[in-house]
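Renewal narrative, Specific Aim 1. Our central claim is that a sequence can be written position by position from structural information alone. The example that follows is taken directly from our test logs and has not been curated for this report. It begins with the structure tokens describing the chain, in the order in which they were read.
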């Protein structure tokens, strides 16, 4: 009894928490014990035993779980109807006396028998053991089984009592969750799309043996489905169906993509959708195909998920649910992959044209130069810039400019051979790399570069507007134009700027003297920056006189540069460079402040008030801060605004008349006066001129130089004077160097003059002395 109680205690401790299972086991154990009693022992039970047996039998037969009892040799003593049906019988009594070994030829039979012997021999129960079912209908099935010892009234173990429950659906659901989690983890880890799709398809096929899965991916143009994954389909079949058209009648996949809805073909041999492909599928034993389109989160088609079956028919509800899950995961994987591809592409390509960007180009150029050094091939680089592209953007709009850039990119690409490369590295700048064999003559490469330049210049229609873009191109060849990628690009760039200076729409080969010129220019730029920081500039002032009286009424401030080692640098050597680099803005601001302060200083010395004229460069005039700079200079110096005159060039004003007019009116609002410098050399619209708030025109020295010998210059000067008089504008003649010129101007009615005859640019002290002299003469 102690041994029996000990075994019972262990069994009780091992019982599952599922009370239904416990009760069923106990009821079955009692029923089995009754059936094993001898007839003599049962006679005393009489009618009550029969009744109890009946209702217990009915109870267990209505339970869907498998309930049974076996003797020590594994023969069935009792079973409910579920067990009988599971083993191919209708009446549970037909099972009595049979063993699993006799009923099933299954590799797990011996393992099950061994487990039952262990329960009988040790008295230890088996609780909630998961095991494969011996009967498989539509694939693998799983049971959870509990078995306890069956004892007689004396406590002797005479067999086992068991209960089993089909957990195939539960296990499948768990596996689905596990597989989903594993696939989502692979997606998050950035594993390759092929690896993820292969794992997904293999997992689906494992649930339903006899099916084969594939994923087709939509091509970039959206017209074709391409092979994505098909780990178990025959390779020859995958190859034969690697490009499926997206059409109304194109098998299951092509049609599903066209309709954007699932297409389930139950019999490939007879379905008209497969008329053109059936012989291929049937030759591999594929009888049915069920295809579902795959979409991204925005509803855009990504491809199709397809299941092939080797038997005709439609998918079961369970399989349809599995397909939905697989399609969803496929969509996540494909969309993530495409997003990563897009990000990677954007990291190395230009967003507008799709061309390689500078980083990728530099990498490929380095590789090309390494290869050239090994095999003796040639690498030639061209740096090209579109001529007057800014005018396209400003006049036609940036959307047209973008179309021009894309057209140019396509045209260049069409001129390239395998191994060549083009990159967009700026707004309208491209770099082209051509590779040529060792025996290929250099002249052929240059002709190819010229072809690219001519192709770019072909007319193009943009929004109905005919447009012809030209480009300036600089070409450098490895070894001659540099040994490294950076040297080659820099030298091609230098040659391109030389082509720009040559007049645009041309190609120039790099020469060493170009590099020297570029180095000199770079050195000059740095020295100019240093000159600004170290205040190496000073101002000289050229007198402006009244032709009638000869007296000075104003001065023009002229900037001069005293270089520490080069001495006095002529304005023509640094003003254009300052304009090009934008340093003229800083220089101009300094000139403005210094000139205003000097005008006030002369007044503090007791000299009569003068007008001080300050040149405003085109670059300065375009700066939005000009108005503030002028106001600050006046405020800080204390100069009266009407004593400051700003000289503007015709080209700066006419570049953008509405903006220029706005800026000029703002400056006039400060109280300063405006003059148009070098008048007659640029293009002025007389209709616009009459609206400009200017006080004075300065006739350019080129018209004064040949007076009185050149009648044309005399006529032009007279016309300017006449026009100015009618517009109530003052006129000053620049560059007066002879008495004859001054006399002729006076005769024509010019009232103001400036030039070497009147006075050279001088220091502030020299100007003060001249003013003091004039004052003394007037007093005497």
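The sequence written for that structure reads:
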């Amino acid at each position: 009894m102690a041994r029996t109680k000990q075994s019972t205690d262990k069994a009780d401790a091992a019982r599952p928490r599922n009370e239904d299972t416990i009760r069923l086991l106990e009821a079955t154990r009692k029923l089995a014990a009754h059936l094993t009693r001898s007839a003599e022992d049962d006679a005393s039970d009489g009618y009550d035993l029969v009744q109890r047996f009946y209702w217990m039998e009915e109870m267990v037969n209505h339970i869907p779980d498998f309930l049974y009892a076996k003797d020590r040799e594994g023969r069935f003593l009792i079973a409910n109807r579920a067990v009988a049906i599971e083993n191919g019988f209708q009446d549970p009594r037909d099972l009595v006396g049979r063993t699993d070994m006799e009923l099933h030829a299954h590799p797990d039979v011996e393992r099950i028998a061994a487990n039952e012997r262990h329960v009988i021999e040790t008295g230890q129960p088996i609780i909630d053991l998961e095991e494969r079912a011996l009967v498989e209908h539509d694939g693998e099935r799983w049971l959870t089984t509990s078995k306890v010892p069956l004892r007689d009234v004396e406590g002797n173990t005479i067999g086992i009592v068991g209960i089993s429950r089909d957990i195939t659906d539960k296990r499948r659901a768990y596996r689905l969750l596990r597989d989903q989690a594993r696939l989502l983890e692979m997606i998050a880890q950035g594993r390759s799309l092929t690896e993820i799709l292969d794992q997904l398809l293999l997992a689906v096929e494992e649930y339903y043996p006899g099916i084969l899965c594939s994923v087709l991916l939509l091509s970039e143009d959206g017209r074709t489905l391409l092979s994505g994954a098909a780990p178990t389909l025959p390779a020859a079949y995958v190859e034969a169906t690697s490009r499926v058209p997206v059409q109304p009648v194109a098998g299951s996949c092509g049609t599903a993509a066209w309709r954007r809805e699932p297409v389930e073909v139950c019999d490939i041999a007879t379905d008209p959708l497969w008329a053109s492909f059936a012989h291929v599928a049937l030759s591999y034993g594929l009888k049915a195909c069920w295809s579902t389109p795959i979409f991204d989160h925005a509803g855009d088609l990504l491809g199709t998920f397809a299941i092939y079956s080797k038997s005709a028919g439609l998918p079961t509800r369970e399989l349809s649910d599995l397909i939905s899950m697989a399609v969803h995961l496929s969509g996540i994987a494909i969309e993530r992959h495409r997003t990563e591809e897009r990000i990677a592409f954007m990291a190395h390509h230009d967003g507008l044209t799709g061309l390689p960007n500078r980083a990728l180009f530099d990498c490929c150029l380095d590789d090309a130069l390494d290869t050239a050094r090994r095999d003796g091939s040639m690498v030639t680089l061209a740096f090209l810039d579109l001529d007057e592209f800014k005018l396209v953007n400003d006049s036609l709009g940036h959307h047209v400019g973008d179309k021009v850039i894309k057209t140019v990119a396509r045209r260049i690409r069409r001129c390239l051979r395998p191994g060549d490369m083009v990159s967009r590295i700026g707004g309208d700048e491209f770099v082209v790399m051509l590779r040529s064999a060792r025996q290929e003559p250099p002249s052929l490469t240059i002709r190819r570069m010229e072809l690219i330049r001519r192709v770019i210049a072909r007319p193009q229609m943009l929004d109905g507007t005919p447009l012809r873009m030209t480009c300036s191109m600089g070409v450098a060849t490895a070894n001659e134009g540099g040994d490294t990628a950076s040297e080659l690009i820099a030298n091609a760039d230098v040659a391109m700027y030389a082509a720009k200076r040559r007049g645009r729409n041309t190609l120039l080969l790099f020469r060493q003297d170009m590099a020297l010129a570029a180095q000199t220019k770079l050195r000059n730029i740095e020295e100019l920056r240093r000159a600004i920081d170290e205040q190496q500039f000073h101002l000289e002032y050229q007198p402006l006189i009244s032709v009638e009286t000869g007296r000075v009424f104003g001065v023009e401030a002229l900037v001069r540069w005293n270089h520490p080692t080069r001495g006095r640098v002529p304005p023509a050597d640094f003003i254009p460079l300052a304009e090009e680099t934008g340093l003229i803005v800083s220089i101009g601001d300094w000139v403005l402040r210094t000139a205003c302060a000097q005008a006030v200083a002369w007044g503090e010395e007791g000299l009569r008030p003068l007008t001080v004229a300050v040149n405003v460069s085109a670059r300065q005039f375009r700066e939005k801060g000009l108005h503030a700079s002028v106001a600050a200079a006046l405020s800080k110096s204390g100069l009266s605004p009407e004593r400051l005159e700003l000289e503007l060039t015709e080209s700066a004003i006419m570049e953008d008349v509405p903006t220029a007019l706005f800026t000029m009116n703002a400056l006039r609002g400060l109280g300063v006066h405006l003059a148009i410098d070098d008048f007659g050399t640029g293009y002025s619209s007389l209709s616009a001129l009459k609206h400009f708030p200017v006080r004075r025109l300065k006739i350019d020295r080129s018209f004064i130089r040949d007076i009185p010998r050149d009648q044309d210059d005399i006529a032009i000067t007279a016309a300017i004077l006449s026009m100015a008089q009618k517009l109530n504008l003052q006129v000053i003649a620049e560059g007066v160097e002879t008495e004859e010129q001054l006399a002729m101007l006076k005769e024509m009615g010019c009232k103001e003059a400036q030039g070497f005859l009147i006075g050279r640019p001088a220091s502030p002290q020299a100007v003060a002395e001249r003013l003091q002299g004039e004052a003394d003469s007037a007093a005497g």
